[in-house]
Amino acid sequence: MRNLCNYISKISLTLFFLIPVSINAEASIYFSDVSAGVFRFQIKLAEQGNPEAQYKVGEMYELGRGVKKDEQIALSWFEKAAAQGHKKSSYKLLYLEIKSNGLNDFTKTQLGVLRQESASGNANAQYYLGKMYATGIGVPKSLNNALTWLNKATFNGIPEAEHEAIAVEEELARIREQEAKKRAAALSESKERKAEEERQKAIKQKEDEKKRKAAAAKRKSNQDAEKKRSAEQLKRLESERKALALEKAKLEKDKKSIEAQKARQAKEERKETKKEATKEAKNEKSFESDPCKGKSARFLSTCR
What we know:
Elements: H1 2-18, H2 25-47, H3 51-63, H4 71-83, H5 87-101, H6 105-119, H7 123-135, H8 143-155, H9 159-289
Helix pairs in contact: 1-2, 2-3, 3-4, 4-5, 5-6, 5-7, 6-7, 7-8, 7-9, 8-9
């Protein structure tokens, strides 16, 4: 009976993933009928106490497959199966507990057990550990770790793990594509930034060259102006020197003229003095012959 249940559950799961519900209304109705039939079969076994069927019924309530979705009823069926030692239901309950309430001392311990059983090769433990890594429940999200454990579970005969692994691979592919786009965008941005930096550098170099030429032209202009000022200053100095030389020459000439005039005056004075002396000498002679003549005649009372 257990083998039959497993076979039917695998068929129902395969039909669930293989029959697209959106092709047309007929396919949707067919799918619904199949799921409802599977549910009716599984619920009969579950009510008879079959733990695997109880787990399946719980999943169908959880997903709304063949029956109206009801998570509380699903939880009750998982608990019934786990109470009978159904490991997969225990893992499911651990997964849901951590998902709802996070980790606590108890769930941390149970998670450690799950890890140990996964490492020991328990396919269902591997499947749920892979789910936890895929969703980041109880462990840090890691799609690579999820894919590792889901692939192991698939290899060990868990069909659900294969579909989970495909979903993880698709997510990884999307992430890689996004990362590739980001890298391409970053590379493009880097190239554009580098091109802009080169352009700005060229503009700066051009501006610097322009400034350098302007500064060189200004220096040359200043040098030319300085040379011109120096030349004009030299010209003024030369003109002043010549003016001073002319002034000096004029002064020398005037001095010589004055000296010559003085010499002439002195000569004239000497001549006049000599002339006076000669005249006086004549007057003295005349006085001797005629006392009333000459300069001293006015002093003589006899000549008055």
